[in-house]
Structure formats: structure tokens, C-alpha cells
Amino acid sequence: MMNAFSNDMARTFIPHKDDTRTLRDAFGRFATGVTVVTCDSPDGPVCITANSFSSLSLDPPLVMWAGDRNSRRFPYFRAARHFSIHVLSADQAELCFGCSKNAFALRDIDHDRCENGTPLLRGCLARFECEQHAYHDAGDHVIVVGKVLRASMADGDALTFYAGKLGQFAHQ
Question: What is the pLDDT of residues 104-142, one digit of tens each?
Fold first, then answer.
């Protein structure tokens, strides 16, 4: 029986702190959706692009994402009682890049606010308005668990991330 790892193209390695690029490339073989997480702060609305989003529980309704503990913007999310996760549509690549480069990109992007002041982006496939539920150490990242207080969804094609590149997943 032949599998993907029995061909000459497969590469096996031992992860090492001096070569994180190879491990990142292997992680990149898993296609994900793309989200933007937002929160309010004393310095204004903050955003971060994350592909580490997942549903976690239906009862209670929980979701999770992971943030780099060394990121200059992560302390804003750590301090925020509320945050919102936005699943981006295929036509929101510019929003993805803007939020990945600038924690305060929402200063120049039209957005709404929910009752607790959390920034809400428009045109997303899904949005989860959350209250912080738990934080878990996870190496150089922190797993953030949120209790979903309100959710919304729309039809459309998803923005995806695979092998370091953005693409789209079209539904039929």
C-alpha cells in the first residue's frame, strides 16, 4: 500500500529551535480559514489576523484562537474582557493584510461596535462576539477561549491560508 510518506518527495525532520522555518512549512500544509480578532482598548480598537481559530464546544458555546505571547498587540487581548472573531470572506484579503501589519488598522477601516464596545467588521462570513472564558499557556502562544455571546453568518466563499499563501474555498 502506497501513502504520501512512502514517496521520494517526503521529508522527515526533527523540529529544532534553530530551524523554525521547516516546522512552519510543515504546519502550513494544513489549509485553514482566516480570521481577524478584534477588541477595544484604551488606545482604540485593536485587531490581529489569526488562522488558529477553532470551534471548541456547543454547550457551553466556546471557540478558541491562539495568540503569540510575544506580540506587541497580544497584551490588549489578554486585558480585554470581550473580543470578536471574524471569519473572512474570499474578497477580504486586503483586510487580512491590513490587520496583520497594523494593530490599529481599524482606525482607517469602517466598522461597527457591539453593545460592549468591541469592534465589529462588515462583510464577513461569520462573526462570534465573545466574552473571555479561559487562557492556556501553549509554548510561545497562549490559547484564548471565548464564550460565544452572539454569532452571525452569511453565505459566500471563504478566504483560506495554505503553504504561506492566501486563496479561496468556493462552496457549491
Answer: 999 999 999 999 999 999 999 999 999 999 999 999 999
Q: Does residue 79 register a pLDDT over 90?
A: yes
Distant-in-sequence, close-in-space partners of 133: CB < 8 Å, separation ≥ 6: 62, 145, 146, 147
Q: Are 100 and 161 in contact (CB under 8 A)?
A: no
Q: Show the cell assigned to 164.
A: 504561506
Query: Which residues, 6+ apart, have CB-to-CB distance to 144 below 8 Å?
Result: 64, 65, 66, 67, 77, 83, 132, 135
What are the DSSP calls for 7-69, one per residue? STT------BTTBHHHHHHHHTTS-EE-EEEEE--TTS-EEEEES--EEEETTTTEEEEEEET
Place of cell 457551553: 60
